Amino acid sequence: MNNNKSLTNLVGAAKATKKLSQFSLLALACFSANALAESVAITNAEVYTLASKGILSNATVVFDEGKITAVYANDELPEQLSVDKTIDAKGKVLTPGFIASNNLLGLVEVGAVANSRDGAAKKADITFDASLAFNPMSSLIPYTRKGGITTNIVMPKGGDSLFKGQSFAVNLSGDFDSVIASNNGVIVELGAKAKGSRALTLQKLANTLEDADKKLTAKDSKKKSKKEPKRSEVVVNALLAGEKPLLAKVDRATDILALLKLKARYQLDLVLVGARDALLVSQDIAKANVPVMISTIDNLPNSFDSLHGSLTTAAELEKAGVKVIIATSGESHNINQLRFDAGVAVANGLEHSSALAAVSANVADVFKLNSGRISVGKDADLVLWSNDPFEISTQVDTMWINGKQVSTKSRQDALRDRYTSESDMPRAYIK
Amino acid sequence: MSINLSGLRFRKSLLSVSVISLSLTACLPQEKQDAKVTINKNPYPSTYKALAHQDTLFTNATVLTGTGERLNDTDVLVRDGKVSKVGQDLNEQGVTVIDLQGKWLTPGIIDVHSHLGVYPSPKVESHSDGNEMTAPNTSEVWAEHSIWPQDPGFQTARAGGITSLQILPGSANLFGGRGVTLRNVPSHTMQGMKFADAPYGLKMACGENPKRVYGSRKVLPSTRMGNVAGYRSAWLAATEYKRAWEKYEKDYAAGKNPQAPKRDLELDTLMGVLEGEILIHNHCYKAEEMAVMIDLSKEFNYHAGTFHHGVEAYKIADLLAENGNCAAMWPDWWGFKMEAYDMVEENVAIVDAVKNSCAVVHSDSAITIQRLNQEAAKVMYRANENGFDLKEEDAIKWITYNAAKSLGINDSVGSIAQGKQADIVVWSSNPFSVYAHAEQVYIDGAKVFDKFDDKYQAQSDFLLGQTKAGK
Q1: Is there a contact between B308 and B282 (Cβ–Cβ < 8 Å)?
Q2: pLDDT tens column, B115-129
Q3: Going by C-beta distance under 8 Å and a sequence separation of 6 or more, which residues neighbour residue B77?
Q4: Which of B153, B315, B469 sits opposite A308 (nearest CB)?
Q5: CA-based Rg of chain B, rounded to a whole angstrom?
Q6: Closest-CA residue to B414 (of B94, B119, B181)
Q7: For residue B5, pLDDT beyond 60
């Protein structure tokens, strides 16, 4: 799916499908699962739109053919809604589906099982497209949905190269067409090194950009080179054209400042990832308009690059005017804790609304996704929560991806049910 | 008199001492007795002293006792570092009164599985002291000899309400060595943190780790059956060692002059388990392996102790309760290895639901230890969504009383009750909320942390003077 598809196109496509559905529902069922999505109105919801309408009480959200078609405040509700299904939210909280990031979801099934891992390869370089390995059938995905996560930005670990490859976006429908966008960000890793000097990696990055920039400028002024650019050059050129973000894994303040300089020089679409010492240079980051993707709970001085990690980092960055993205730390199996990490950030000073944006709208903005907000035309990726989504006592009531209701039942639930049921037979007979 | 002998070659020099022993022996010996050889079981004694404290009356709190009770609008009086009274409308003279209206009070949080100090921050090679990965049996190593008390993680754990914690060696080995229980107070020596009368723990590990580490070196164990063969060989040796010491004791008491068994640090630890003085803390994920470990303990007549990381404990909840084993669990860690694949979020609740059970929530993480209350909360809420009826007073046990029981320190800490050491956490609100903070933390009645008072926020030597914020 192309994220940059214009709204009119989308609406047009939706209308066409609607006609089809009246014509032959069965034929359509064989065509695409998503096209079956019915029109739904969720009424009486506390809606966190993360859009211009802000927070609405007793509001109604309508979606059809996978897109949000109307958002009504209490006093805007028309007398009649022409929808297939109405769901009374009974005052529960409706948010955009959360968007996780910086993990290997769908690339790793069991961490220590070597042949269940596809997130890294020694020879992986800037062209590494791990989306080719994405497994929508992974048992991690239904479990991740329990955390209200509808979309994920997978960021592979790469290999020996300075550039670790490219990120990609997926929805968590579990369908075979889950990849929303591949190659939507270039990952680079800077900072402390076990062998050698960080200076060399910074230098390499600067040189790569400078060389590519020179080549492009030369091309503009002289005749076009007959040579096809190398695949890696195409990617670097895309960075220089600002077509995709440079996702820079970095912690120390000096490295961050060096990156900000590169951004200024080449107008890069820069995103800082990890950035444990970011609060030391929060003003510079804000001035450069660079988003920061951080773990909110990573507060220990893990290295000499990160002596200032703090539970208040997210709040302090936000106060300085930095756009924050919250990502869980560690691997992929507990991404559904994203909402608790957001809660910890709120407990340590981050505004609740900012924390919500940090797990939805902000991520959508950086990766140009048509989700993360509840407004007309956006993908109907929605979560109805029993209460405040960040509270541990809260659970997902219902969730939709592209307007289609998805289950939050996982393999873990089946195991629990097996071992909490009574039977005369061995448990293996309980299914 | 306790004499430490590392080898028999020293024995002759002690003959003069043995003459004194002889004169004290009641029965008439056939020959002169040498000085009796005994093992000093506490050669690195605790020097912990409670911090300066004052008698305090906490009033109007919601108290979770740690033993299954919730007391609303209740006062807790602390005198001389101990809980002196728990009740309503207590009136005491000459004490500091702290009104906790709207706040919650719990026992200090205890983590039975921590590597703070032995795998400290920063995570640099020079600090990696938690796993003596040089032999499948390293019962002779003691985690306390690796502890760096300046690990900044102790401070952040204290801010999360952690008052006691067991530091374990790593899990590469069948027998990883001894763990030690600490009071979470700042100190520049390990001894200054050591929990005075806590029993030692012996770390054992089942499953994937030992077979991977040693299998890759082509030595036993390379399989799970190799693991068990390794345990059995070790317990056999320990049984013989114990018998040799018993024979020595008996013969010496009979006035003979037996030769003391050769000291063996590895077997000292295992013998401590056989004698019931050292508690097993067994990293063991899978149901079938825990069942084997229970049988193993019966074969060699010791108690199998606490299973840590018991991801599959829910499959054998009955068996654990029948045999008096605690299970220390995460709410949701999983999938990092095959033996952690069968996670269920209700694991702790399922284990807890059985009569005579001992369910514990542990961290094994310098990050998670800061929020064990939230870890317990996750279990409580997920379980309640799926047919359980757990309350805050139930869930707090998993990180207080049951944890203390697992460590053998439940006589002195782990609950709010008269006579108990006053390890107390004051929470800003219901501690099972994501927004709750540990506002004040007390150990033995002494305030060791205050969220709103810089005076009670310790800082490690390591960070002092090199961070911009100064803390």
Answers
A1: yes
A2: 999 999 999 999 999
A3: B55, B56, B57, B58, B83, B84, B85, B86, B90, B92, B95
A4: B469
A5: 24
A6: B181
A7: no
- Provide the β-strand partners of residue A185: A167
The secondary structure of residue B87, as a DSSP letter, is E
Give the position of tokens 């192309």. Answer: A2
In this predicted structure, which of B19-33, B315-329, B453-467 has the lowest mean pLDDT?
B19-33
Whether residues B341 and A110 touch (CB distance < 8 A) is answered with yes
| Residue given tokens 């949905």 in the structure block | A145
- pLDDT band of residue B4 (cuts 50, 70, 90) is very low
**CA-to-CA separations, A254 to A148, A190, A259, in angstroms, rounded:** 36, 11, 9
Q: How confident is the model at residue B294 (pLDDT cuts 50, 70, 90)?
A: very high
Distances A338 to A122, A212, A329, A331, A359 between C-alpha atoms, Å: 30, 38, 9, 12, 8
Q: What is the pTM of this model?
A: 0.92
- Residue B374, both tokens: 């939230």
Range B367-371 average pLDDT = 98
Q: Domain spanning A98-370: which superfamily?
A: Metal-dependent hydrolases (3.20.20.140)
Chain A, chain B: beta-carbon pairs less than 8 Å apart:
114
The chain A residue lying nearest B370, using CA atoms, is A297
- Cβ-based contacts of B336 with chain A (< 8 Å): 110-112, 331, 333
Q: How many residues does chain B have?
A: 471
Instruction: Give the pair of three-digit tokens for residue A79.
Output: 């007398």
Residue A296 pLDDT exceeds 90: yes
Domain boundaries, chain B: 108-411
> pLDDT by residue (tens digit) across B412-459?
999 999 999 999 999 999 999 999 999 999 999 999 999 999 999 999
Residues A347, B436: C-beta atoms closer than 8 Å: yes
SS3 readout for A162-195: CEEEEEEEEECCCCCCCEEEEEEEEEEECCCCCC
Could you say which of 3.30.70.330, 3.40.50.720, 3.20.20.140, 3.90.1640.30 is the CATH number of the domain covering B108-411? 3.20.20.140
DSSP E strand stretches across B320-471: 326-329, 359-361, 424-427, 438-443, 446-450
**The predicted structure's pLDDT at residue A219:** 72
Of A329, A390, A427, the CB nearest to B434: A390
A351 touches chain B (CB under 8 A): no
**Helices of type H across A24-171:** 25-31, 140-145
Structure token digits, residue A91 = 């005052």
CB–CB contact B466 A303 (8 Å):
no
Using the Cα atoms of residue B28, residue B34, residue B39 and residue B40 in order, give the sign of their dihedral: positive
| Shortest distance, CA A366 to any CA of chain B (angstroms) | 28
Which of A281, A316, A393 is the best mutation test for B, with the most CBs of B within 10 A? A393
3-state secondary structure at position B342: coil
Q: Return d(Cα B64, Cα B67) in angstroms, integer.
A: 8
Chain B nearest C-alpha distance from A359 (Å): 16
The residue ranges of every structural domain in chain A are: 98-370
ipTM value of the model?
Answer: 0.91
Chain B touched by A285 (CB under 8 Å): no
pLDDT exceeds cutoff 90 at A330: no
Across A370-415, where does the E strand assignment appear? 382-385, 396-401, 404-406
Q: What is the pLDDT of residue A22?
A: 38
Task: For residue range B232-259, list pLDDT tens digits in order.
Answer: 999 999 999 999 999 999 999 999 999 9
What's chain B's average pLDDT? 94
What's A154's DSSP letter?
E
A9-44 pLDDT tens trace: 333 343 333 333 333 333 333 344 444 568 999 999
Average pLDDT score over residue span A271-283: 97
Take residue A283 and report the two structure tokens written for it.
């003003």
